[in-house]
Amino acid sequence: MNNNSISPTKPRRLKDVHQWDKTTEIAIIGYGGAGACAAITAREAGADVIIFELASAGGGSTALSSAEIYLGGNGGTRVQKACGHEDSTVDMFNYLKLCAGEQGDVEKIKIYCDESVGHFNWLCEKGVTFKDSELKDRAIVATTDDGLLYTGNEQAWPFKEIAKPAPRGHNLYVKGDNGGPLLMKILMGNVARLSIPVEYDSRALTLIQDDEKEVHGIVIRQDGQECNIRASKGVILCAGGFVMNQDMLKRYAPQLSRCNSPIGNPGDDGAGILMGMGAGGAAINMHEGLTTLPFYPPASLTFGIFVNASGQRFINEDCYHSRVGNFCLRQPEDKIYLVFSIDDTSKLEEASFLSAEIAGTGESIEELEEELALPRSALVQSLAFYNEYAAQGEDPKFHKSAEWLKPIKGPYAALDCTPGRGAMYAMFTLGGLDTLPTGEVLTSKREIIKGLYAAGRTTAGVPRRGDGYASGISIGDATFFGRMAGKTAANS
User: Fold this and answer.
1) What is the C-alpha end-to-end distance of the chain, expressed in Å?
2) What percent of the chain has pLDDT over 90?
3) How far apart are the C-alpha atoms of 244 and 246, rounded to whole Å?
4) Torsions phi, psi of 386, nearest 5?
5) CA-to-CA distance for 257 and 429, rounded, in angstroms?
6) Per residue in 389-444, pLDDT tens?
7) Residue 452, exposed/middle/buried by CB under 10 A (0-12, 13-18, 19+)?
8) From CA 192, how far away is CA 51, in angstroms rounded?
9) Pairwise pLDDT comparison (345 vs 459), residue with the higher score
10) Which of 54, 75, 237, 244 could form a disulfide with 272 if both were Cys (CB 3.0 to 4.6 A apart)?
11) Radius of gyration of the chain from Cα atoms?
12) What is the C-alpha separation between 128 and 122, in angstroms, rounded?
């Protein structure tokens, strides 16, 4: 058959399969964090497993990440307790529920919170190590080997009003931004220990489905040849998101197309989602994604204010960088500036990830306002109002925390954070197949498609909104629900 005739959205009919090239109980598509954890759990439950990976090596987007893992509740993980934090499951649940808003899957959030410490312990049993120490700096990634840090909006309004803040970002015991490669090295070591076959350079083309919509296997291309893979217990799609598929981005998440730094690997092309859709699966939350604007470090820039084309503030600047980036994309017209005192930029050149140009400077705020071509008196009035209350440790408009409040005094400067003008806007997708917490893929009527499971960014998991994203929740979600899908498939 001509390879070009195969579409991921058109499953091969079971009646058209005249021979099976390989047979297993569970076929796992993708060898990142979700696929590895699904394979380990399924194999330990007694199932035969084969992993099929598009690339020539494993790791996926997990290996490209910092691999902070968002964990807590249940009184706290070992690391949280060692650092003096008692974290309740109720607080963790309420926080993540607010992060996801009306788009959230309450069942997934609940089971993730309820079993989060158990997942921490499972990772430790598999050889993942965490140092019992906390990085207390305002940081995007840990540049130390400390095991715990804040990686979300826990300390910012409105989240701190809903749930008691606690740091839940668990950083692997490795110095610098190297957690992803280490996590995958450990997980892949467990896959090897269990003698789970991994077939690289294997592109999944389409699912194999019978007339009753049950999935019986998958078509793989290896060395230019199509192979029909029989999976008697099911196929688990762990093939990533669609951040590298420009057509899908334009169709489903056009707002993300304004960002300039996609986060992912070449395999994040949406193929797993498309295959699930072709088999009758519902794709949900497809418009959403993480958007990050790394305006700190240096943390001192948090003392500044973000303004739009009208010279108006629109966010409390002590929010996590992902929430700020999301709000920036919502602003009308084509100007976003971070205005600050030059006195707060001593480490800007050596520490910044932002890559934003200085848009203007001024001894007076009137001078800066004119240089930025903002409406006359708009920035002057915004700063006057801000400074009046900041001097009292208050922010009646946006409720920035008192520790980041002080009057902004001249000389002044502004960074151009307008999308499309050089500032880093990193992003990845948060939409995918609708699944049960146990991994089964669902139709638009939320009926189970027998024999089809999914985990990781191929699904719409716990993280659902860019304005509530907490770093580490994707790795936590992928590894946890990968395990869930592997267990369910093995016991089917």
Assistant:
1) 32
2) 92
3) 6
4) -60, -50
5) 11
6) 999 999 999 999 999 999 999 999 999 999 999 899 999 999 999 999 999 999 99
7) buried
8) 11
9) 459
10) 237
11) 24
12) 9
Residue 338 · residue 295 · CB < 8 Å: yes
**Whole-prediction pTM:** 0.95
What is the pairing mode between strands 225-237 and 448-454? parallel
Q: What is the three-class DSSP state of 277?
A: helix
Q: What's CA 468's distance to the chain center, in Å?
A: 11
Contact 274, 64 (CB under 8 A): no
| Helix 179-193 × helix 33-44 angle, to 10° | 30
Alpha-carbon gap, residue 488 to 492, rounded angstroms: 6
Instruction: Report the distance separating Cα 59 and Cα 65, nearest Å.
Output: 10
- The Cα–Cα gap between 271 and 265 comes to 13
Angle at which helix 473-490 crosses helix 106-114, to 10 degrees, equals: 90
SS3 154: coil
Burial category of 106 from C-beta neighbours within 10 Å (exposed 0-12, middle 13-18, buried 19 and up): exposed
Q: CA-CA distances (angstroms) from residue 296 to 146, 318, 338, 369, 460?
A: 19, 10, 11, 23, 29
CA angle 5, 11, 13 (to 5 degrees): 100
Q: 212 in the Ramachandran plot: left (φ > 0), alpha (ψ -120 to 50) or beta?
A: alpha
Alpha helices in 194-336 (DSSP H): 246-252, 271-278, 321-330
pLDDT digits (tens, 9 = 90+) for 312-339: 999 999 999 999 999 999 998 889 999 9
- What whole-number distance in Å separates Cα of residue 470 and Cα of residue 321? 9
